[in-house]
């Protein structure tokens, strides 16, 4: 959670990806970014919440949103009107140790940070 009421960047993740968002958020926060990390186990449950609640979690005021999800990324674009980066894996069925697959598919903290910074640079240019 950012101490900033209106963070510049909201990282959304669930389950096994939550640690990636939390660790990336910590590093980005240490670098001066206004960060909020949100645990959102279900986009469907989130959609059922009041608009007031949704806006308290995902502030509309200049925040950019990153969804980090190893499973389906569908649904978030329906409710997020902020600039949105989806970091996910669209290919399944591979077998290897977790760290090998994470590296291959860009699911390490370092790779996620690079993707976020590159996206932010594109938005700013």
Put the structure in a nutshell.
This protein has helices at 18-30, 43-48, 51-57, 76-79, 98-104, 109-124; strands at residues 9-13, 35-39, 64-69, 84-88. The chain starts with 8 loop residues before the first strand and ends with a helix. The chain is α/β, with parallel strands linked by helices and 125 residues long.
Describe this structure in words.
By secondary structure, the protein is of the alpha/beta class. It has one domain (9-124): Rossmann fold (3-Layer(aba) Sandwich), CATH 3.40.50. It has six helices and four strands. The protein has a four-stranded parallel β-sheet, with helices on one face. Helix 1 (18-30) crosses helix 6. The two termini are 28 Å apart.
Instruction: Report the sheet-strand fraction.
Output: 15-25%
Q: Number of helical runs?
A: 6
CATH fold field value:
Rossmann fold
What's the story with the biggest beta sheet? 4 strands, parallel
- Poorly predicted runs of 5 or more residues: none
Rounded average pLDDT: 85
How many domains make up the coordinates? 1
Order of helices and strands: EHEHHEHEHH
* Count of extended strands: 4
Distance between the termini: 28 Å
Main sheet: strand order: 2-1-3-4
The dominant shape is globular
**What proportion of the residues is helical, as a percent range?**
40-55%
- Report the structural category: alpha/beta
Supply Rg.
14 Å
């Amino acid at each position: 959670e950012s101490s900033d009421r209106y963070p510049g960047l909201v990282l959304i993740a669930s389950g096994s990806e939550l640690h990636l968002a939390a660790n990336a958020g910590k590093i980005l926060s240490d670098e001066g970014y206004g960060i909020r990390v949100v645990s959102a186990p279900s986009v469907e449950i989130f959609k059922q919440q009041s608009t007031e609640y949704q806006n308290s979690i995902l502030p509309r005021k200049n925040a950019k949103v990153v969804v980090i999800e190893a499973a389906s990324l569908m649904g978030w674009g329906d409710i997020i009107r902020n600039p949105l980066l989806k970091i996910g894996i669209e290919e399944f069925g591979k077998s290897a140790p977790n760290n090998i697959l994470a590296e291959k598919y860009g699911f390490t903290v370092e790779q996620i940070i690079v993707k976020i910074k590159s996206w932010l640079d594109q938005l700013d240019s």
